Amino acid sequence: MSLSDVLAVWLCLLTVSQAYVEVYGCPATGYFGSNCSVPCPDVNCQYCHIKTGTCQGCKPGYKGHRCEITCERGTYGAGCKETCEHCRDVNQCSVNNGTCLTGCDAGFKGDLCKTACDRGSYGYDCKETCGHCRDRYPCSNINGWCLTGCDPGYQGDLCKTSCDIGSYGSECNETCGHCRAVDHCSNINGTCLTGCDADYQGDSCKTLCPVGYFGQDCSDTCINSYTCDGCSDVSGSCDYGCRPGWIGYFCQKRMQERSKVRRLAVDKSGR
Ligand SMILES: *[C@@H]1O[C@H](CO)[C@@H](O)[C@H](O)[C@H]1NC(C)=O
Ligand SMILES: *[C@@H]1O[C@H](CO)[C@@H](O)[C@H](O)[C@H]1NC(C)=O
Ligand SMILES: *[C@@H]1O[C@H](CO)[C@@H](O)[C@H](O)[C@H]1NC(C)=O
Ligand SMILES: *[C@@H]1O[C@H](CO)[C@@H](O)[C@H](O)[C@H]1NC(C)=O
């Protein structure tokens, strides 16, 4: 590098720095003049020429040669280059800094309404709590709908409604058993919370009493409980037939199958 080259670079730098001082010379923005005490002639001007007062740069929220234009609806900031986020009212987005002056749309929070509600909440000011959504997926931050359906026992878009009385489980597809009180059937797993109707047993009261038993909690015994195939829950008589091998009103008689077979055998050999 020759001496003249170095000189040329130095001169160039000097020019640039002088230009900088001329444009942005005053430490306080919005003023000009040799004392930096005269306000820029254009009210929304942030930087004006130190000698002439010509505007060189507008305050955030304004544009135009004399900064006479307010940012269009929905934009803000230096040169109006930023876009307002999810303001509840886009007319109430500060042209200066993008703050939503009357709050956010449903599903968003923060001064700028740029941040979605935390997982598990939704709505205006993120004040609502998601319902019983299935899986690890949360609900929509905007309207609270569960995106992949409900946990067992719940229904509706929000999964905040229990299954209708008498049904339970996934998508409320299951039907409650013979609960003593159908409104005490667990909406989640079908357990009959206050026990079963007469003649039924099990958590969900879907199983008949064992053969030979009947009544509340299956605590009554049929007459001939070993041979009856279910009996009247009033009299205990064998109204539903006998177990294989037994006959009679009380299923008290053993079928005579053996003798029948023997008789046939005798008939055959007798010919
Ligand atoms: C600059 O400041 C001096 C002294 O502080 C004052 O006499 C003079 O009037 C000022 N000039 C302007 C243009 O304000
Ligand atoms: C944003 O600007 C508004 C006025 O437009 C003002 O009230 C608010 O304090 C400013 N917020 C911040 C964070 O500077
Ligand atoms: C529930 O029933 C609906 C309609 O009958 C069916 O499409 C769905 O697959 C069922 N869901 C379950 C979990 O059984
Ligand atoms: C069934 O759900 C009820 C609540 O509805 C609960 O108390 C019970 O423990 C559950 N039973 C089983 C077997 O999960």
How would you portray this structure in words?
Among the domains are: 22-69, no CATH class; 219-271, no CATH class. Helices cover 13% and strands 18% of the residues. It has two helices and 22 strands. The protein has helices at 3-23, 257-270; strands spanning 31-32, 38-39, 45-48, 55-58, 62-63, 69-70, 75-76, 82-83, 108-109, 115-116, 121-122, 128-129, 154-155, 161-162, 167-168, 174-175, 200-201, 207-208, 213-214, 220-221, 246-247, 253-254. It has a two-stranded antiparallel sheet with strand order 1-2. The chain has a two-stranded antiparallel ribbon with strand order 3-4. Strands 5-6 form a two-stranded antiparallel sheet. Strand 3 and strand 4 (55-58) form a beta hairpin. Residues 6-23 and 265-271 have low confidence and may be disordered. Residues 1-19 form the signal peptide.
What attributes characterize this protein structure?
two-stranded antiparallel ribbon, 2 helices, 13% helix, disordered C terminus
Mean pLDDT: 85
Binned strand content: 15-25%
Number of helices, where a helix is a run of at least 4 consecutive DSSP H or I residues: 2
Q: What is the end-to-end distance?
A: 139 Å
Indicate the percent of residues in helices: 10-25%
Number of strands: 22
Bound molecules: 2-acetamido-2-deoxy-beta-D-glucopyranose
Describe the protein's topology.
Blueprint: H1 3-23, E1 31-32, E2 38-39, E3 45-48, E4 55-58, E5 62-63, E6 69-70, E7 75-76, E8 82-83, E9 108-109, E10 115-116, E11 121-122, E12 128-129, E13 154-155, E14 161-162, E15 167-168, E16 174-175, E17 200-201, E18 207-208, E19 213-214, E20 220-221, E21 246-247, E22 253-254, H2 257-270
Antiparallel strand pairs: 1-2, 3-4, 5-6, 7-8, 9-10, 11-12, 13-14, 15-16, 17-18, 19-20, 21-22
Residues 94, 96-97, 99, 111 line the site of one 2-acetamido-2-deoxy-beta-D-glucopyranose (NAG).
